[in-house]
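Hi everyone, sorry if this is the wrong subforum. Our group has a chain we'd like a structural model of before ordering constructs, and none of us has done structure prediction before. Sequence below.
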Amino acid sequence: MMTIIVENNSMSDKNLPEESELIQGLLNNNQALFSKVVKAYYPSMYSVAYAIAGPAIADEVVQEAWVSGIRALPKFEGRSKLKSWLIRIVANEAKTRLRKESRSVSLEAVNESWATDPRFDNRGHWNETNSEWDNASPDELLSANELQECFDKHLELLPDNQKQVLNLRDVGGMDMEEICNILEVSSSNARVLLHRARDRMQQMVAHFQRTGQC
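Answer:
Right subforum, don't worry. Here is the predicted structure as tokens:
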């Protein structure tokens, strides 16, 4: 059994061998190769665990996902890239942990279409932007410790499904198709969740600008 040590540093996927050689090396219990794979895949796997399960147990989720992945590797059929397959295991592990902790997560809890929301046009884009937000760039605004603390506080108050999409998209930098696959939501629902999360955070920043209070 391979020893799984998750470290918060990373290396590029480009430093890894070709997919077939990589999988065979892992099946052959190549510890050096396994360490490289863990370091290369850690950022993506952690971002998914963080987005779904939160920071408190994200590392544990990644650790458990690796255990599950190594056990299931002999049955891996190669229908997707190894990294994508592992990320799906992380997502499932994170959802399982949430259920075990009796947290209610509904990833399809969207009852309205963005098409009926006057804030969006028929393609789901904003009809208007917040003028308060436009006065300064997000980077400039978030340079203030007080605003960063307020931002983090309100981020945790978002509904889980909105927070997950926002973290995966704006923090993890994943494309919408990948997010839909991970969270098992439709593209339209994912767009609604992302717009609503961004809108909530935008309103928080605008309020902070006007009043200086969280």
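For your construct planning: The CA atoms of residues 19 and 82 lie 7 Å apart. The first helix runs from residue 19 to 27.
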